[in-house]
């Protein structure tokens, strides 16, 4: 066995990467590496003496139990609204992030964070008020899923990068986290069950497209009918205006019959007029999209008002008349600040 420069943390490694480190550091082959990796991602805590590959290797099993320390985010708070649950997770340096557990009919969707805070500065978003504290590591991103799926035993099927942070602002760590989550020997979450949501970093969309993952779902927060309104709501639009964003979306490698997801947060007297619906439809016409219409979830001290139920239905009808495929998203978690745009991890001193 050799000394290692960094801890062997399966949360940050695909099986191939883990197996290479395992061979170099423990002098064992593929079968033992596969057994260790599988046991780690199946049971919490893992029992490395159980797999047949470790028969008569009790010393190695004990060493693996001591060495393979995941350093999971600590689950500090659970806040519920019906079946929906918001988790407050404390990172190793004391920073707090939030994840949201959304029960569906036959499975669970987990909304995860990619950053502590965010630097995008969207005017309607609670997380934006924090500013960016730091990027999460791949292990911290995967750790949110591991906590839900392995530690808590939830039937996690869908992962959505719609929590705190801009995923494409933490590109390398998010991509590595997706690779780890996707690994069949680990969490085995298929690309078709992962959605990455972006505020519109066109450069990141092109980099992600270059990876050639057509089954990965891409969601884009549009939220405005034109550059003037969008730049006021979302500063990222000043660097990547709507024309540049649409060009990047046009190059996304959709699978056959695939669609892009576009999110439109409807804000009263800001982006909810009939002419806005026409402009949005015209903008989206060259793309294969499904538009998720989301009533605004107010942040604290918000300068904006949510739309009325009638206003939401009217805007949906205007879009439908323009032949836009619209899905109305009902407000979930609004009362516990767990809705879209409402997450804001607290510091250690707040807990």
UniProtKB/TrEMBL annotation:
PROSITE patterns: RADICAL_SAM. Pfam families: Radical_SAM. One of its GO terms (molecular function) is RNA methyltransferase activity. InterPro entries: Aldolase_TIM, Methyltransferase_A, RNA_MTrfase_RlmN, rRNA_lsu_MTrfase_RlmN/Cfr, rSAM, rSAM_sf. Its cofactor is [4Fe-4S] cluster. Its main location: cytoplasm. GO terms for biological process: rRNA base methylation; tRNA methylation. The keyword Transferase applies. Residues 104-335 form the Radical SAM core domain. It is found in: Cytoplasm. GO terms for cellular component: cytoplasm. Keywords: 4Fe-4S, Cytoplasm, Disulfide bond, Iron, Iron-sulfur, Metal-binding, Methyltransferase, rRNA processing, S-adenosyl-L-methionine, Transferase. The keyword Magnesium does not apply. Belongs to the radical SAM superfamily. RlmN family. PANTHER family: 23S RRNA METHYLTRANSFERASE, RADICAL SAM CORE DOMAIN-CONTAINING PROTEIN. This is 23S rRNA (Adenine(2503)-C(2))-methyltransferase RlmN. It comes from Desulfonema ishimotonii.
